[in-house]
Amino acid sequence: MSGTNTSGATSANSVESDSPTASSEFDTDERTDDEYSRRGFLETAGAMGATGAAVGVSGCLGEDETETTSEQDFVWWTMRGYIPEETEAIEETAAAFEEWTDEEINLTTNVITWDQVFEQWQAAIQGQNTPNVSEMANEHAVDYGSSGVVRPNTELFEQYDDWYDTPSFWGNYEGDVWGFPWFVEVRNFYANMDLLDDAGHNDVPETWEEMIEMAMDVESETDETGFTSSGAQATGTGQVVYGATAQSGGSFYDHDGEEWSVEIDSPTSLFAHLWMASFQEEWDIAPGGWAGMDGTDAEQLYREGNAAFMINSGDAANEMIDDGDDVADVTELSTIPEGPMGTNSAFMGGSCLSVFDSDYTEHDADDDLSLSFVEYMTLPDTMEGYFPQATPNFLPVREAQEEIPPFTENTTDIPDEWIQTRLDQAEQSVRYGISGPERNAPFLGDLEGSTDAYSVAISGILGADDDPKEAVVDMANQVRESVDDEVDYDVEENTDEPELEDVPDELQDWISGDNGTPQIWNPYE
């Protein structure tokens, strides 16, 4: 077989970060308007035929600026550059594809950061020098696929029937599947058992009610913070409020078989925003300055032993173990406490692998070879090569992948209980834009960026005293305007504010404070 460049090369203009925390802030769900705009993409892609230019970055340049030229050169892009051990294991596993396939190929892995990849995708598409395969989220795959740049992988996807719920429809669009689910990563619930013990509790909370009552006890008995998460206008903030919406029986979108509707300003969504705001406004269990805290700030507060509960990504777990934090020894990781509708759902991040159509790739490896690489990288036997190093962030997307280390044999320093909890949580995960309608659409990725991952309303409520009803309606209408630009029917602006009296019956005790349920903050009483 031909030689392999797997030295962790980065393509031109990319910047690697050694900080694992970076992936919690720039994970697969975060982008800005400039970094990810479907309209901008279409404009550049439309100009491609006229320019014929090799504009942008070359997908085959490594750190040594050496360009390979064989017809069987094969390049793929991954954003797994934040944890060195994880990166190395993925590179080595990908390199072994040269032996696995019947084709003579020279495979190069290019590592790119999430904050760089959006403009690099656009430049590579315009210059017709994309990689053969790229990591992305299914929202990106559907967007690019609807424009003919990324090809579907429906037949490969349908070879398996053991998909977890959300990954099973994450890439569905117009009868095809776009992007092949690679892994999911979920928001975790962290509990400092020392602080709970000081407050008179020896178990993690199983329900929302127990979580709030325990957090209030921590505040009164220890003077430490009861609960923390991201509260600023940031990706993690919107993820927490969406998880609360799903646990309350709501969603941010729906689809009736013909048309999309926006549910961000529904009564249930209003309830979820008020419930989250109550941590600060009613129950006083959130940290001071919460509205200015992102996920990194929340993690620091928890790791210093100053918060009883935290919802955050898995990076915090990795860091606590790697750095030998004292709080790691007293931390229990559990599934998100059960919400009013009886579910333990948490927000799901993650990535898929997508095949760029060979008309756009720099190297002339055919589409079937690219799909073969996708299949290879997601087989359980292959995943054994890098899943242990990617623990606890990488979690399976289907049941067969549960039968590999570290889920069957834990060779990591991560406690067995933490790994099992994350595996349990992966099966109970939801994703904004996807879980309600159970399908994808080309406009969804762009909308996540334009609303800072749906954190605009809650951050305004927490930090600027925005009226909650007006805040959710304004965010929903901003989304409606964007959807209206992308579909061939009218998505009308909403002028009616949601009313709490219209929420499901299961939520009413939270509004009234009846039956021992903590009463939410209600500025409309």
Automatic annotation (TrEMBL):
Native source species: Natrialba swarupiae
Taxonomic classification: Archaea, Methanobacteriati, Methanobacteriota, Stenosarchaea group, Halobacteria
Superkingdom to which the source organism belongs: Archaea
Ranges annotated as spanning the membrane: none
Compositional bias (Polar residues): 1-25, 514-525
Sorted UniProt keywords: Cell membrane, Lipoprotein, Membrane, Palmitate, Signal
PANTHER family: ARABINOSE-BINDING PROTEIN-RELATED (PTHR43649), POLYGALACTURONAN_RHAMNOGALACTURONAN-BINDING PROTEIN YTCQ (PTHR43649:SF33)
Protein name: Extracellular solute-binding protein
Pfam families, sorted: SBP_bac_1 (PF01547)
Spans annotated as Disordered: 1-37, 484-525
Biased segments, Acidic residues type: 484-508
Keyword set includes Lipoprotein: yes
